[in-house]
Amino acid sequence: MSSLKDLLVLNFDSLRYETVSSRGALKFHEPVYWNSLLRSQPSFLVGARGTGKTTALRAMDYSGWRSNHVEDVLPPFIGVYWKFSTSVMHAFSGNSVEEECWLKMFQHYVNLTLVDRLVATLECVASDMGGLSIFESSSTWSRTGRLLGFGEGYKFEDISHFRKCVEEQIDSIQIWINNPSVGIPSVGAPAGEPLKVLVDKLWDSHELCHKPIFFLLDEFENLLDYQQPVFNTLLKHSGDSKFTFKIGVRPHGRRRTSTLNPLEIVSDPADYELIDIDQRMSEKDGAVFEEFASEVCRERLDISDRSPLDLDRLFPSLNWEEEALLLDASLKVKAENLRASILVDELDPVFRTQVVNLSDVKLCFVHDWVQAHPGEGSIGEALACFFGSGVREWENRINNYGYAWLFTFANKGVRLRKYYCGWSTLCRIAGGNIRHLLDIVRLSLIRHEQEGKSLSQPVCPEFQTFAVRDIGEIALEQLSFASQYGPRLRWLALNIGTLFSYYASQGLRHAPEIGEFGCLEPQSVLDADRQVVDNLLVEAAAHQLFIAKPRDKRAKSSTVPTDSTYRMHPIFAARFMFSHRSKRRLELTYSDLNILSSNIQTGVKQVIERRDRKPPTGESPDVLF
What we know:
625 residues; alpha/beta; 8% strand
């Protein structure tokens, strides 16, 4: 078994599948939606950065599939991968060229690129199989070349010459893009037509008989608005062909739903299957993602049934009472003092025994609850209810508020103000993002190894918490560069996080564990300000600042901000100190969100005063108040 340091260097130096798989050391782990992807029906695979879109699509590429399957059998389909580059896609615009001209040139480029990548893949297949008969079909390649704009007199010589012609066509487009004053290159057939010729021939070949072609398109959001309908058109009509499309896109990255005919819409489930990674991974209250993540991490950490510790014991958790005693060392003294004052004149032996046997943590919780709710009587009366007719009510109260109570310790000057630990907790904090989880594991184990510890010893709660906090800080800083809205996204994150942190610190005075918000219908808001907020919410969901969910649980999705709720991604919980579980929601107005996304020093204070109709109470954070 490798040392912990070696495992960190070998298996955690890069968290991207396409890098580690090239060494052949790590295998691909099938996510819960894998079987849906393997169906011939076109699919949109929707997920934020780090959720595994590229990993899944690359694993379906012919080379990726072969590297993850040792058996000498062809895959059930031939996968062809293409990632859309922002710099290339956005080059097809401007320069005083009409959009109609750009559209024709872009369709020509799409044909050339898809054919080029298909041919490159077929050459790999031929190498594995000892040849393909399609490369001997001169008529097929000659016709394909003519459809690609090689000229009416084009005749196929060999596949190398064919690919050279394709490359020359692509080169001529790229040169023209930067110098459109020169003559426009000739274009070929509409998008998809050359593909049909090749794929029909492959479908009837004896080597690849009835084997479909899967075009795996990644980062669909990088396409310009006029370009997305080109692929919508290909997808819409791929049902009549022997090829299909699997398209990876970030949330809200699919901005156009029509084909090249503006009146023709592509929709789920009629034309494709929408596979929402976050929705699939969060099934069974996050247990689906935890199972998937456990498989990935066991392999990377070389954990087997013979290992001293499994993941649950390597990353141990704390129950709320254990955590309370760690967070506030004075609780035991406080509990003893409370017992002394409660029992000083108490004669009932049963009640005395009950108070003595009550845990220190629960006794302090009852005391703090009474302090936060003066109208509910003294602590003695509360305890009498606790031990008597109100036992069920107090059990529910502890279940609802016990964990939330821990956040009220933040104002007591303790060294570490909240713990985020335990394998299940870390998986839920990752929020379906495997990259976040691998980062948390890596940083936790780096500190663990630096202390001279190994995988046979549990990682302390402090190191787990520090890792979660550090990854949250990195995610926060990355928001500044996420898009044109980056600076405002960062301010929105800082202010919403501080708002949730404030309510967490007041956890016994209102609904517990607030971690999400709804957006109320805009009133007295300028249209320009409303549009900015709408755009910010879209960008925030795309970059996993917020996880958007329809208010109506029966709806698959929502495109109207007021019809959604927004949960701050749990990776930020430790950075701002609020509950990663997000059990309750508050309602914000468009004006609130406009303020919270701006560099206004008192923005959070203004929103609290509007909502609570009074200034913030307690030792509020100085930052942003």
